[in-house]
Every structure is written in structure tokens, then in C-alpha cells.
Amino acid sequence: MSDRHDLPSPIIKTTYGLSPLWILPILALGLAAWLVFQSINEAGQRIQILFSDAQGLEAGRTIIRYQGLEIGKVRNITLADDLDGIYVDANIYPEATQLLTSGTQFWLVKPRASITGISGLETLVSGNYIALQPGDGEPRLTFTARDEPPTDMAEKAGTTVKLRHRPSLTQCRIAALLPQNSRGRGL
Q: I need a surface site. Which of 13, 98, 174, 175 has the fewest CB within 10 A?
């Protein structure tokens, strides 16, 4: 049998530096940090809107529009502490945060029929959405929604026609209002 003292002693080398195996986890961590930064940066401004009820609102699906352009999305819907309303937490995209002032008004657009007309029919296809009308004032992050659209909206949107009634007319012929064809008859 050989003696243990005859064996050569091992040479121990210590290496300093990064193993090539660590490159992939470090790249993954860097990518994850960049994605978190982008997500926070693109999330926009968080606001809170108080509604009287949550009918037609869905977290994650209801959008906020200004002049037909999507400028935000509802993130969370909670009941108010006093049970007198619903708080809607929403993110407004960074390019629209200048619209958030003390004079800004929000309301829920849904199909409505009244004696003055029918509005919100586009929501039958796309779903209800929250509309915004900017106003003047200081920047603000909490708002109270209106139950109805502002009355001055009709004056800004398109042509307004006022019909007046003459007391001397007993009957109004609709055919007289229609364009005439080449034979003199209404279309």
C-alpha cells in the first residue's frame, strides 16, 4: 500500500470576475427593469371620479374619451365610504393630462332617449364610455361626474336648427319641407 504522503498536493486557484453563466440572468433583470419603467411611464396620471351609480361602468373595459379620442381607461371601481356614490379610479394617458383642471367635467355616455332627441347610439356597439369636457382652472385629480351631459355641448357640436311655431298656421305639411324633384313632387 502506498502512503498518503506520497500524493501530490492539489493546486487551488481562485478566480475573480463574472462567470459567463451570469450574463443571461443579468440581461433578463435589465430587461425586466426597463419594462417596469416603461409601464409606469406610459400609465399616465391616476385620477378619481365620483359617480352616483356604477351602472354601465366596468373596470378594465370602460374608456374615457375626449372628442372621440381615447384618452384613458377605468382601472378600479369602489363603493364610497358613506355608501352615497361610486369612486372610479382611472388612468389618463400622459398626452391628455393637461385637460385635468378644476373646470373639467365628466359624464357617462350611454344610449338616451328623451323628448329632445336620441343620443349615445354609438354605445350600443362600442359600449358605454366616460366623456370629458375640459375647463379652466388649477390642475386637479379628483372630480365629481355629472348625471347628464352639459347643456352647452349641443351648441359646439355641429349645426343647431331651431324650429319656431306660427300661431296662424293650423297645419304643417311635411311635404312642403322636402326637396322637389323635376316634376314638382316631393321625393
A: 13
- 142-144 and 45-51 beta bridge pairing: parallel
Whether the CB-CB separation of 44 and 92 falls below 8 Å is answered with: yes
How far CA 24 is from CA of 15, 21, 34, 144, in Å, comes to 20, 7, 15, 50
168 is written with which cell numbers?
A: 296662424
Q: Which of 53, 68, 67, 80 lies closest to 142 in space, CA to CA?
A: 80
Taking only the tens place, the pLDDT of each residue in 33-67 is 999 988 877 778 899 999 988 888 888 889 999 98
d(CA 96, CA 130): 14
Contact between residue 72 and residue 64 where contact means Cβ atoms under 8 Å apart? yes
DSSP string, 38-92: HHHHHH-EEEEEEES--TT--TTT-EEEETTEEEEEEEEEEE-TTSS-EEEEEEE
